[in-house]
Amino acid sequence: MKRSISHQFQAYRPLLRKNRSSLRRFLTRLSKNSPRGLDARIRSLEPGVWKTVDCLSCANCCISMTPTYTITDRRRIARYLGLTVAAFQKKYLRQERGGDRDWLNRSRPCPFLNRSDNKCRIYSVRPADCAGFPHLRKRFADYAHVHHQNVEECQATFELVRRLQASLAHRLK
Ligand code: SF4
Ligand code: SF4
Q1: Quick one: CA dihedral 166, 168, 170, 172, positive or negative?
Q2: Of 90, 157, 164, 103, whose CA–CA distance to 129 is shortest?
Q3: Cβ–ligand 2 contact at 118 (below 6 Å)
Q4: Which ligand is nearest to the CA of 131?
């Protein structure tokens, strides 16, 4: 029987919606006034997050978002699929008209998501953006705006920010 795609995410959604404003306010506050040792604190909380989140039962990032594909990504993935870069781009991607003119998925869910088990069909050569997502180990100052956006879309981000808020409650009163 086919697994229900993102069943776990759907179950989580009400909790995310209920807490998003509070967590976003907290992130804004942290961005303006980061306590010392913030990145070390995040690193210490992150392993616990992955004990409660199962990405293969979620896949919301692959379903509702798109990675950006650098030229290195496009060359690597095209080679893996036996396509030229031009053919790969034409078949799967579109280029943004404005902004950074990033290369993005043409459709959602991502065409490389295997809908029967939520696994990535190009996992070994997936875009660097996917490999680093949800960027919890990156410097907070550089990724606060990303967490702000993802706190409602990614359970792992939500869990990390919620734990961070609880761990700093006594210092941010
Ligand atoms: S390339 Fe793979 S990991 Fe990245 S969004 Fe698509 S299915 Fe998900
Ligand atoms: S990274 Fe976040 S959105 Fe993506 S599958 Fe894992 S928990 Fe879900």
Answers
A1: negative
A2: 103
A3: no
A4: 1
Q: Contact 41/140 with Cβ under 8 angstroms?
A: no
Give pTM, 2 decimals: 0.89
As a whole number, mean pLDDT of residues 146-166 equals 94
One-letter amino acid at 52 equals T
Q: How many residues does the chain have?
A: 173
Please, what's the largest Cα pairwise distance for the chain?
Answer: 57
Q: How many CA atoms lie within 13 A of 162 on its CB side?
A: 18
Task: Find tokens 């950074």 and name the residue.
Answer: 100
Nearest residue by C-alpha to atom 3 in ligand 2:
154
Query: Does residue 2 carry a pLDDT above 60?
Result: no
Distance from C-alpha of 93 to C-alpha of 89, rounded to nearest angstrom: 5
Task: Write the Ramachandran bin of 93: left for phi over 0, alpha for psi from -120 to 50, otherwise beta.
Answer: beta
Is there an atom of ligand 1 within 6 Å of 122 CB? yes
So where are the chain's domains?
Answer: 63-132, 134-173
CA atoms within 13 A on the CB side of 107: 7
Tell me how far apart the terminal alpha carbons of the chain are, to the nearest angstrom. Answer: 50
Q: Which residues partner with 16 through β-bridges?
A: none
pLDDT above 50: residue 3: no
The pLDDT of residue 6:
61
